Amino acid sequence: MEEKFYTMLIYSENFAGILNQITAVFTRRQVNIESLNVCASSTPGVHKYTITCNCTEEMAKMLTKQIEKKIDVLQAHYFTDEDIFIMEACLLKVSTPKMLANPRVSHIIRQHDAHMVEVNPTYSIIEKKGMTEDILDLYRELNALGSVLQFVRSGRIAVTRSTTERLDRYLEEREKTRK
Predict the structure, then answer these.
(1) Three-state SS for 171?
(2) What is the mean pLDDT of residues 42-63?
(3) Distance from C-alpha of 109 to C-alpha of 115, rounded to nearest angstrom
(4) Which is nearest to 135 in space by CA: 124, 151, 119, 158?
(5) What pLDDT does residue 41 have?
(6) Contact indicator for 46, 13 with CB cutoff of 8 Å
(7) Rounded Cα distance, 50 and 155, in Å
(8) What's the rounded mean pLDDT across residues 70-93?
(9) Which domains does the chain carry?
(10) Contact residues for 45 (Cβ-Cβ < 8 A; gap 6+)
(11) Per-residue pLDDT tens for 117-140?
């Protein structure tokens, strides 16, 4: 089977130790996590984990089923990039003297629709939001000019293209069965 890039959206109650339990599922299956983002969700008391990895669809199904078996996990789903809206962010620290000496640096920043967030005599900070490849292209071009001092990018954040949140439907159904 062919490996693809999957994004997994996992919802859990906000208890200590859940992240360790979730990542252990990947470790046991020897699947490398490419990016990980954890934050509070729009549902009070629920955290959202956005995890990306390369694997087969069969493995993605197995991972999400194993994760959903964890006692404090509410839901786990896997998606391809076509199924979700995704974004990342990055910060690049570039040498201000090199930037001023080479007009190509400023051109590349504008061409990639990146923004200067700080400029001082020693370094400048550039911020870019967008798709992973757009961010990496900006980095590669600036790095090829020898101007990058530091580079960091966030984990992926994602929302489904569906008009309703699966978690909300699940919680509504769960509440009905409790009554």
Answers:
(1) helix
(2) 92
(3) 7
(4) 151
(5) 84
(6) yes
(7) 8
(8) 91
(9) 4-79 (3.30.70.260), 85-153 (3.30.70.1150)
(10) 13, 14
(11) 999 999 999 999 999 899 999 999
Token pair belonging to 34: 């490419």
Q: Kind of pairing, strands 4-13 and 46-55?
A: antiparallel
Which pLDDT value is given to residue 177?
Answer: 73
Residues 6+ apart with CB under 8 A from 173: none
Q: What token pair was written down for 176?
A: 């009905």
- DSSP code, position 70: S
For residue 166, give the H/E element and its range: helix 166-178
Longest dimension (CA), the chain: 70
Structure tokens, 42: 């729009």
Q: Distances from the Cα of 62 to the Cαs of 10, 35, 137, 173, in angstroms?
A: 14, 19, 33, 24
Whether the pLDDT of residue 59 is over 70: the answer is yes
